Amino acid sequence: HLSLAKLKQTFEKFDLSEDGFLQKNELRYMFKVTSGEVEENELNALMEFLDVDHDGDLSWEEFSKAYAVVLDDDTMDSLSFPLRSALRKIQYSGLPDPEKHLTM
Fold it and tell me: How far is CA 26 from CA 5, 19, 97, in A?
């Protein structure tokens, strides 16, 4: 079950550059580890939706928006399939302990 604390822990663990942001490649790696795969259109839709300031990076404030969205069925139902799919992967991935998966 997804919690805000678990989402924050995941954000911090997959911020491999330790700059306080998730870049697209870090997000792709997060999906690979937590969900097994992510389609490019899912990744693009998620970046476009969460990257409020359109700088190409996701801050924690931007990334944490995913938590509120997945809890709101009406909002989820209104989203495009690729975006909804990416958000569901975050929600249901189980988000294993990232410490065990940080080998690139």
Answer: 19, 11, 16
What is the CB-side half-sphere exposure of residue 3 using CA atoms within 13 A?
Answer: 4
* Beta bridge pairs of residue 103: none
Q: Are residues 8 and 64 in contact, defined by beta-carbon separation less than 8 angstroms? A: yes
Gap between the Cα atoms of 8 and 78, Å rounded: 25
Nearest in space to 66 (alpha carbons), one of 80, 53, 47: 47
Task: Give me the average pLDDT of each 10-residue run along the chain (104 residues).
Answer: 86 96 96 89 96 97 94 94 94 62 52
Q: How far apart are CA 70 and CA 84, in angstroms?
A: 9
Given a contact cutoff of 8 angstroms between Cβ atoms, the answer to whether 103 and 40 are in contact is: no
Q: Are 56 and 72 in contact (CB under 8 A)?
A: no
